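Hi all, posting the design record for the shared folder.

TITLE: backbone redesign
STEP: 1 of 1
STRUCTURE INPUT:
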């Protein structure tokens, strides 16, 4: 696997992050990025190439989602009425959502699409998306890189810890939302 990642890994990471940011359900872009960064920490890859390539893929994928949202906006909201509530929230908090939402897996996949649906101006969208993607890419890439250097040859532990933290934070968020609704 190490040979595969060092030979083709960056292209697989870029493709998966692009698809995830575009909004393709269950595309494991973040997971691939974490694994590639941790392996770079073990000396199997170049973190200085992985992070910028991943950030670029995330921005381009979100931009493609934005274009799809612009093209399909009214058809999506009329077909899926639940999107209207999301649309209202995005209109009020769009810039914050683009930045903070980059760190939340399910939300990250819908950011570009929703920005396009609500008609956010392209320069504003690209600015906040680039800032969010850069922050996310640097934070996650560097953390995974150093986790990979600490764990040495057991990448499974690194992935399990990061996934457990993400699931725990996501579960806490869902629980808090349900308590607020009750």
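Okay, here is what came back for every position:
SEQUENCE:
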């Amino acid at each position: 696997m190490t040979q595969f990642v060092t030979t083709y890994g960056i292209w697989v990471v870029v493709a998966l992050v692009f698809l995830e940011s575009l909004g393709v359900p269950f595309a494991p872009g973040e997971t691939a990025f974490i694994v590639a960064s941790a392996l770079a920490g073990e000396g199997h890859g170049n973190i200085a190439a992985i992070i910028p390539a991943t950030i670029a893929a995330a921005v381009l994928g979100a931009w493609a989602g934005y274009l799809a949202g612009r093209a399909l906006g009214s058809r999506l909201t009329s077909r899926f009425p639940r999107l209207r509530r999301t649309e209202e929230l995005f209109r009020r908090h769009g810039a914050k959502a683009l930045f903070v939402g980059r760190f939340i897996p399910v939300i990250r996949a819908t950011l570009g699409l929703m920005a396009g649906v609500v008609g956010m101006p392209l320069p504003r969208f690209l600015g906040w998306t680039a800032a969010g993607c850069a922050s996310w890419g640097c934070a996650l890439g560097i953390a995974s890189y150093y986790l990979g250097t600490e764990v040495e040859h057991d990448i499974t532990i690194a992935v399990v810890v990061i996934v457990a933290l993400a699931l725990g934070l996501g579960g806490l968020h869902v629980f808090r939302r349900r308590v607020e609704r009750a």
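COMMENT: The helical segments are 2-22, 29-41, 47-79, 83-100, 105-108, 111-117, 122-151, 155-181.
Let me know if anyone wants the other runs.
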